Amino acid sequence: MTDKETDLNERVRADFTRQKVMELIGARMSLIEPGVCEIEITAREDLTQQNGFMHAGIVTTVLDSACGYAAFSLMPAGSGVLSVEFKVNLLAPAKGEKIRVHAEVKRAGRTLTVCSADAWAVENGESKICATMLATMIRVDQDGMKR
Amino acid sequence: MTDKETDLNERVRADFTRQKVMELIGARMSLIEPGVCEIEITAREDLTQQNGFMHAGIVTTVLDSACGYAAFSLMPAGSGVLSVEFKVNLLAPAKGEKIRVHAEVKRAGRTLTVCSADAWAVENGESKICATMLATMIRVDQDGMKR
Amino acid sequence: MTDKETDLNERVRADFTRQKVMELIGARMSLIEPGVCEIEITAREDLTQQNGFMHAGIVTTVLDSACGYAAFSLMPAGSGVLSVEFKVNLLAPAKGEKIRVHAEVKRAGRTLTVCSADAWAVENGESKICATMLATMIRVDQDGMKR
Amino acid sequence: MTDKETDLNERVRADFTRQKVMELIGARMSLIEPGVCEIEITAREDLTQQNGFMHAGIVTTVLDSACGYAAFSLMPAGSGVLSVEFKVNLLAPAKGEKIRVHAEVKRAGRTLTVCSADAWAVENGESKICATMLATMIRVDQDGMKR
C-alpha cells in the first residue's frame, strides 16, 4: 500500500472502531478503497426478525455504515460524515450464513455525497442479492455537527 | 379491553417476542392499537455510531418494526408481514436517554400497506423529532413467504 | 395580510411563475403560508399514463414543487431552493377531476429542509389520498447553484 | 429481431403510445430489451423549473416510465404495471440539450419488481449523470387494477 492508502485505511478503521454498534452485531469491514467500502456480518439468532431471517434494520445498519465509509473515504482529512437519508428495498429474505455488503459512491459533492449499496445473502457458498440502498451522506465536523 | 383488543394485543406481542433482535437492542413495545404501534428503546453505548449518537440503523430497526406491527395489526389472523422498502430521513442526532417511535398506517391495501413513523429523541424530559420513515409492508404467509 | 405575508406571497408567486412547466401542466398555487404550500392541477388527457390516470411523474412534479415552496417560504430572502431527493408512494390511482397537493415542512435546517406532502384525487366532490412524498430540499443561491 | 423480440417491442411500444403525457413532454423510447428500457427527452423551455433546468418532476416522469417498461418487459402477456413507489436523488442540474434515461430490472418477482434507473444530461456532446431512481413496480391487470 502507498502512504495515502495506509492513511485512508487507518483513518477509516479508527472511525469504524468508534461505531460501538458494529461490535454488538459482529460487523467487520472487509474492504476500504477510495469511494468503495465492504462490510460483512455473520448471521446470528439474536439478530433475527420473526421468521428467523436477519432483521431488515440490521441489514440497513450495515448498508448505512458501508455507504457512510464509502463517502468518508473521499472526504478531506478532518471531516466527519452523517447520514441525511436512505432508502432500502428488501429484495429477498436475508438468510444464510452471512450478509455481505458492497457500497460505492455514486456522486461526491462538496457537502453531499450520494452512495448506492447492495447486500448479498451468502448461503451454502452461493450469494443472492437481498437488499439495496440509495443514500445521501453529508460532510460534517469531526464531532458530528452539521456546518 | 374487549376480546378483540386482547386478541390483537396477544397476537402482536407474540410476534414481537419472536423478533430476537428487539431483545438484543432493548426495544419494547409500548402501544399497539389497530393501525398504530409505538416502540421505545433506551440509549446504550453499544448502540452508538462514531459520535456517540444512536446509530441510524438501530433507529431504523425500531422504525421498521413499528411500521410492520402497525400494518400487521390491521391484517387478518394468519397473516405475516415483511418490509418491501422504507426510506428514512435523519432529522437530528439520535441522542438523549431514549428514542420513542410512533408508527401508523397511512393506507392499508389487500396486499400492500403504506406506513409512516416518526422517531423522537428524549433528552432531559424533552422530546425532539430525530427521524422519520415512509415504508411499504407486504402481507405474507406466517412463515414469511410472499404469496 | 401583513407586509410580511404580502412579501412571502409575492416572492413565492414570482418564483412559481418562473417554473414554466407549471403552466404546461396547468398547475396553480392555491395556498402559501410559512412552511405550508398547496398546489392544484386539473386532470387532462394529455397528462395520463396508459390506464387514463394522471401519470405518477406529473403528480410527483406537483408534489415536488409544493415541497420546494413550503421549504422556500421559511428561507431568508435571496435564497433559492433545489430538490436533493424525494420518495413517493403511490397509494391509489390518480383519477378524478383534479389532484390537490398539500405540503409542509417537517424540519427546517440551515442548509437542508425536510418536507412531507400528500396528494388527493378529487372525484365527484370526494377526496381520496393517492400519493405521499417525503423530500429533502437544499437552500442554494438564487441562480440555483449549491453553496 | 426474433418473433419474441418483435412481440416485446410491439407490446411495449403500444403501451407507451397510450401514455399521453409522453407525447406532451416529447419523450421517446430509444431502447427496449428484456429487463432494460431507455427513454430520451429533449430540453424545452416549457419543461423548466425556476432556474431554467428541466424540472425534477419531468425527469422523474421519464425515469418512472423507463422503470415501468423495464419491469413490464419481463412480465407475461396480459399484464399491466403500476408504480408502487420510487425514490429519486437529484445529482446535478438537468441542463443541456437532452436527458437520456437508462432503466433496468434489479429483481423481478412474481408480483413486485424492483428497478433502478439513471438519468444523464447531455450537453455539448458530453453526458453527465443528473439523477438516479430506485423504484418498485407491481404487476396488475391490463386495466390498471391491482390484484
Would you write up a description of this structure?
- 4 copies of one chain form a homotetramer.
- Chain A has 147 residues and is of the alpha+beta class.
- Chain A has one domain: Hotdog Thioesterase (Thiol Ester Dehydrase, Chain A).
- Chain A contains 3 helices and 6 strands, in the order ααββαββββ.
- A 6-stranded antiparallel sheet of chain A has the order 1-2-4-5-6-3.
- Chain A starts with a helix and ends in a 7-residue tail after the last strand.
- The interface between B and C is medium-sized, with 12 and 12 residues.
DSSP strand tally of chain A: 6
Topology of chain A as a string of helices (H) and strands (E): HHEEHEEEE
Q: How would you sum up the global shape of chain A?
A: globular
- Helix % of chain A is 25-40%
Q: What assembly state would you assign to the polypeptide chains in this entry?
A: homotetramer
CATH architectural category of chain A:
Roll
Largest sheet of chain A: 6 strands, antiparallel
- The residue-averaged pLDDT of chain A reads 95
Query: Hey, which two chains have the biggest interface?
Result: A-B, 40 and 40 residues
CATH domain class name of chain A: Alpha Beta
In the predicted model, the low-confidence regions of chain A spanning at least 5 consecutive residues are none
Spatially, the strands of the biggest sheet of chain A line up as: 1-2-4-5-6-3
Q: Rounded to an integer, what's the Rg of chain A over CA atoms?
A: 15 Å
User: At the fourth CATH level, what is the homologous superfamily of chain A?
Assistant: Hotdog Thioesterase
DSSP summary: helix tally of chain A:
3
The termini of chain A sit apart by 33 Å
